Amino acid sequence: MATYTTNEFRSGLKLMIDGSPFAIIECEFVKPGKGQAFARVKLRNLQTRRVVERTYKTGETVEAADVMDTEMQYLYSDGEQWHFMHPETYEQVSANADAVGEAAKWLQDQDMVTVTLWNNSPIDVVPPNFVELAITETDPGVRGDTASGGVKPATLSTGAVVKVPLFVETGEVIKVDTRTGAYVSRVKN
Amino acid sequence: MVDCVDSQQWRPKASVVQLRRRAEIYRQVREFFHARGVLEVETPILSRFGNTDPNIESYIAWANTRDAHPKINPAGGGAAGDAEYWYLHTSPEFGMKRLLAAGVGPIYQLCKVFRHAEFGRFHNTEFSMLEWYRPGFSYQALMDEVADLVRCLSGEDECLGVEKISYAQAFQATTGIDPHNASLDELKDFVRSRGQHVQGLAMDDRDGWLDLLMGNYVQPELGQGKLTFVYDFPASRAALARVREGSLPLAERFELFINGVELANGYQELTCAREMRRRFKREQEIRKNNNQLSVDYDRYLISAGEHGLPDSAGVALGMDRLVLHICKQDSLQKVLAFNQKNA
Q: Given CB atoms, is A53 within the 8 Å cutoff of chain B?
């Protein structure tokens, strides 16, 4: 069983707490003068995504989590499972709705995404920061209409709904920031 | 061997402007002590003897030769055999006290010290210490001199208030707990009530729990917008400070806090050689029980104590943290030329 000591703690390190995999977000070293030192850590549960805090006496060892982030290609979904493939080994994994989470609304066939694997099972899927998606449905914008704040909702090919400027029309391809769900720009072909 | 480093890692951490400000502060420190007749000294970084404190791990050094290197010559090299190895000092305390015993008078030193596994916003393995000793001063008087130094370096327009409170008062004010009399359960309940999950602290380690509370709850509240001196620590936290006997023995020790960060640690120095030896041996015992590597205590210091140490107050101040405070930075990494990650 691989372990880490508190000396090795840094942002991004993956470890096990009470049987669940966590990633360190932040680590602060707390030491009163001439006293015992403690590492105060903020961690994210990689399955539930909840953030917790733990304090460790320095020198403590923790179990490493067999967690890896891998770039994989999205293949398809049958509504219950989402299927991904490793581009070099052609190995496939399938992830359920919990693991895919918000990423589901941005995934297009053949997109490269980051899949977090724990003991070789997907627990998290992160889409690329920017995706280019076609608008399947949006109202025609009325020039000069500022009542709506200059934006209107648009449905994209994946089913996601994004606020777009009034001049953008159905059928156009737009660039979206998946981290915020915000329209970035139109994509010229 | 490290073959490749990130191509930008050669760059300094602190800006040139920051480095100039640091040099200016050093110049002012020297002027401060020159004006007061305190002599600058240098004592060795390498010593045959080390710091027995179980909460500090030292670095050791040996020559990079086939004879001395413990990996190449395990029988004769490193800490195991008779071959030469040295401890890098964690503070210049021992050398400076030997000078005091020799009658050198009031002295100060600006030097690098080394402590394993300390890295973060306010820690770097290798850091700069300003340490000085005042024969004939009480620790209360030395607190005043520390305040004078910090205020002088902070500039005329920084009218920093000074507050002096006892360890018990500091604890009471921030946690409502009496640190000298509270039961271990009271300490644990407090931590639990704050939802803090702690791992690795033995259930019966009262000093450890006090340290946890001190570091996480008391300390962050101290010195907010002013200099807060905390004095009179529990006897168990005396290190080499004199303990004032009584119904509640207290260590005549003080710490200075600014904005929740500890800047200095000072004592009414213990002058009794026998008590020094007793404390070192006790620390060695604790290291042994914790399965830590043993450390040889300083025989030269004991001899100096037997010869006679003048009654003195001494203080160690973290220069990097002082520079950080004066230059209003938020991390040690911004005031160091390079840190241990790119040294």
A: yes
Residue A164 near residue A175, CB atoms below 8 Å: no
d(CA A6, CA B96): 33
ipTM of the modeled complex: 0.71
Beta strands in A9-126 (DSSP E): 14-17, 20-30, 38-45, 51-57, 61-63, 67-77, 81-85, 92-96, 112-118, 121-126
Q: Do B255 and A52 touch (CB under 8 A)?
A: no
Q: Tell me the residue type at B237.
A: R
Q: Kindly determine whether residue A56 and residue B262, on different chains, have CB atoms separated by under 8 Å.
A: no
Given a contact cutoff of 8 angstroms between Cβ atoms, the answer to whether A71 and A117 are in contact is no
CB A106 within 8 A of CB A131: yes
Distances B119 to A29, A61, B123, B128 between C-alpha atoms, Å: 7, 18, 5, 14
Residue count of chain A, please give it: 189
Residue B63 CA neighbour count, 13 Å, CB half: 7
Lowest mean pLDDT among A131-140, B78-87, B107-116: B78-87
The DSSP secondary-structure symbol of B120 reads B
3-state secondary structure of B205: coil
Question: Rounded to two decimals, what is the model's pTM?
Answer: 0.79
Q: How far is A151 from chain B (nearest CA, A)?
A: 41
Return the H-helix or E-strand segment holding B23: helix B16-35
Q: Answer yes or no: do B200 and A60 touch at CB < 8 A.
A: yes
For B198-223, what is the mean pLDDT? 90
- For residues B191 and B213, the answer to whether their CB atoms sit within 8 Å is yes
Chain B touched by A8 (CB under 8 Å): no
Residues B107 and B38: beta-carbon distance below 8 Å: yes
CA gap B75, B309 in Å, rounded: 39
Choose, out of A5, A16, A30, A61, the residue to mutate when testing the contact with B (most B CBs < 10 Å).
Answer: A30
Question: Which amino acid is present at B182?
Answer: A
- pLDDT in the model for residue A105: 92
Distance between CA atoms of B324 and B18, rounded to whole angstroms?
10
User: pLDDT tens digits for A53-62?
Assistant: 999 998 889 9
Task: For residue A133, give the 3-state DSSP assignment.
Answer: strand
Residue A163 has pLDDT above 70, yes or no: yes
Query: Virtual CA dihedral for B332, B338, B339, B343, nearest 10 degrees?
Result: -170
Let me know: does B202 contact B208? Beta carbons within 8 Å: yes
Q: 3-state class of B162 per DSSP?
A: strand
DSSP lists the bridge partners of residue A51 as: A44
**CA angle (A94, A98, A100) in 5-degree steps:** 55
B47: which residues sit within 8 A by CB, 6+ positions away? B86, B87, B89, B94, B95, B298
